[in-house]
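Ligand: alpha-L-rhamnopyranose. Inputs:
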Amino acid sequence: MKKLISLLLSLMLVATLITACGEKKVEEPVTSTEKETKTETETKGEKVKFAIIVKNTGNPYNEKEMEGFVKAIEELGGEVILKAPDQPTAEAQIQMIEELIAQNVAAIAIAANDPDALQPALQKAMDKGIKVLSLDSAVNADSRMVHVNQADPTAIGTSLVAGISEMMGGTGQFAILSATSQATNQNAWIEVMKDDLVNYPDIELVKVAYGDDLRDKSVSETEALLQSYPNLKGIVAPTTVGVAAAGKVLTDKGLKGTVQLTGLGLPSEMAEYIESGVCEWMYLWNPIDVGYLAGYAAAALVDGTITGAEGDKFKAGTLGEKSIITVGDGTEIMLGDPFKFDAGNIGEWKAVY
Ligand code: RAM
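Predicted complex:
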């Protein structure tokens, strides 16, 4: 790791930002120290390129994730390539992986729109020596070297069921408003929630709807739930886009106190609904840290500090030392525990992310 850090720190600090909407370059001035310590690699213009592909554009959560990734790679002095498809589909991400292979990047970190569909493209990347990791929403264990997980799925799923049950007074119908039907992370949390329902015999899950992490679709899916289930007492949206859309619909329809809401939300987007009481509380983690951890993990894979095997350890900048654990048939790096946001603390967090 030290070797890579000193190598990368000697490179020009240039971040190349590429999005689906176009390409923009952000160039920072080169300091005299950096100029003096130019390496052979830099002279040849071979900067180490780190790429991140998020689920889609138009989602502030994904922007925060990218922000953290950029922060890590800039601390290490590398070059960043940011990619986000317009639609949260596997097809769009496959095309981006192919482009990154052609650009000869050193690492690809991906928040996957499908656990399995990206496998041929990611395997091709790994065959070419590109280090592949997933973050936020995993690809299957054969398609990656390691996964950066934001929090334990069991803790997330059980907190959400406990939350909605308490808000609903322990009885009645609730629905889930999810992201896309193929999203690995949401599906893992929903599975935990469904299993946990045995502990709540008087609450009934009537439907899982999909807003595809698109604002308008999430609004119309919420409206459809309210129409189809007139006795609905609660909505759980394990997606920042979904929970904010549901907050808006419940507010607009004056349903505060009639239909309860919880989920995984960005404090900046949910503060108004938490302050108004439409959503009493919700959970999340720091999405900037998810991207930051993935940036350091990518660098550690590239310089060989880690291979993605259980027990590997590396320094993740301000997050300190992190180690790799086995989960299911793959390995993961865990960020931490989900954090509860309510009226008492939302004010502090809404300006942060
Ligand atoms: C949305 C995305 C993301 C998820 C959060 C909670 O922004 O689906 O993948 O982790 O919600």
